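Subject: sequence -> structure tokens, single chain

Hey, anyone have a minute? Need the predicted structure for the following. Not urgent.
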Amino acid sequence: MLYAVFFASGAAALIYQSGWQRILTLHAGMDLYSVTTVIAAFMAGLGLGNLLGGTLADRVDARASVLLYALMELFIGAFGALSVHVLQYLYPRLSALISTTPRQFAFHFALLLIPTTMMGTTLPLLARGVVARSAEIAPSVGRLYGVNTLGAAVGAFAMAGPWILGRLGLQGVIGIAAGLNVAAGLLALRLATIRNPAPAPAKLSSERDPEAGFAVWATVYGLTGFAALGLEVAWFRLLNVVGRSTTYTFSRLLFVYLVGLGLGSLLGGRLARRLTRPARTFLLLQAAIGLAALVGPLLVTAYFEHAGGKRRVFPRDVLAPLVVLLPPTVLMGICFPIMNRVVSNRLETLGRRTGALLFVNTLGCVLGTLATGFFFLHTYGTAATLRLLAGILCLLAAAALLAEGGRMVGRVVGLVGAFGIFAWLLPSGDAFWAPLHGAPPKQMTTREDGSCVLGLFEERPQFFGLYISGMRQNAVPFDDFHVRLGAVPALIHPAPRRALVIGLGMGSTPHGLAVDPRVEHATCVEICAGQLALLDSMYRKGMRELEPLLSSRRLDYRFEDGRKFLLDSAERFDLVVTDTLLPLSPFSGSLYSREFYQLVSSRLRVNGMFAQWVPSRRILETAASVFPFVFVIEDPASPVSSKFLVASNRPIKLDRNALLERNRGADRSTLPPETRRDLEEFLARAVATAVVGRDFAPDQLNTDLFPRDEFSSW
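Reply:
Had a minute. Here:
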């Protein structure tokens, strides 16, 4: 029964992590640095909880340990029930004080410290409650870790599609997690108070726990945690591109990752007691993990290179995650109970040893996340990061084999040779990413930064498609709609001196905006810093229409999260334009929510205007619920998807003759002749329809906590 309780607890914990991360990044930003600080703060709290739980567990008997566990679950459930209101209320009011990365980490850590510490105590406490004999330490701890991780996989599955998240939203799903914690706590409380027949006295092991040896093995286990989380970040980046990043891609990948860890831990619990040399087995497993970390990506890139431009659903969304994630994560899961077998031989130290192991491993995970996210990926790229982290694990195994001497030297040579072959075969740079985009390497130019993988695919001579995390977003030469989205709102405004564009793309929206000479200064905020470098590379290949984007003194570029920039900025704008963003894109709901439109409204000057693509009726109604004056502008001859809105807090004056006159006075020399002609013809025939009536159902609009268009996309 306690295993079932711990399974439910794992599901709740994963839902909290995903839900809280989503809420916090709404205000902290969705760039790599903000997301990484949230994850690191969450894991740091878990690590401290591991230490606390281990200390408590060794000071009480089994029944009291289960009782403490029950109280922790009840406390977590109570916090979870209130967490959405706390996070949504507190963060926006303190945003200006936590604008730097160190301050963000400190704030996230303080905010999440209590609940995550309580979560961290649960495994050491429950381990003390279920282990009756020293010989059962490794198997029992392995089973506990396994069922808890499989429970977390179920939590990831709940966040991996519209079947639950799309029906309940963040607040509803977090409410379910709180209910699971309360139910788990009450059931554990009941089990702790049942008067079972007195068990036979626990048989204490005569084996000695070597204190000096524990410090060494704890350091080794921390290093494996560093490599494991770094590999997870790199694997997820690779598979994000393969799966054409959507709202649910991360949760689907996390589901596979956690299933592998959980199954591996259950298997490791069965193997641990049978091993005669568990320490050697643990280190050899690191070699296997390191090699598997390279083989999976190598097979995936080879498959898609062979498949050419075909990226079918099953290989892309099912086969690739299984090949890349499942073998190494099963091996990682096996390691935890085996490590427990190495360092924990006595019941008297079970809690402290288990808690300390989890703490150093979690600390290694935090450092691995920070190092990979902040440095390795940006500096070396994904392929080199995979080689580096896999090499660390193989080096551990090689050192252990060399220490044994004799015939082990030959095995070390074999291990080094296998690593060298796989590392050499794994492609780098454009050769690594091009097959995953369905492109020949010679026609693909890629850039990686901390937040994005960017690809520029020359689909035909002098026609380039832009891919962001595997999803095609835009093209050069500029498409007409994006130029209209930037140019038309500026021409409508009576005096658009200062403008803000959220999203750079291929540059067509800010390019269209800058056509109007009345725009004295425009700030373009883009989360993917590598896009400007790609535009520069295209300019050098002969795309001369990009020159104004690269040389204009009126354009200023900021590489950060656009919503966070708007939240922190004290500046007011005459015009705010968001570049097109598909509703199925991850975190797209943060730019289509009622709260975002309220933020934009508060940052507009008198007569200020806001413009945005209208991909759905709900998005239009959500904007109209905030702005009193909204027009939908469309071309009767164009597809329905080419509509965009212009909104304001003041009446909008639309005069076709004035627009045509302003367009004639615009600096259109930087636009290709066809684009100039299209813009003039569009202004001559466009239809503007006012949105009248405000009888929108509030529970059907997009909000931060329930971005319905994003969560229902599949």
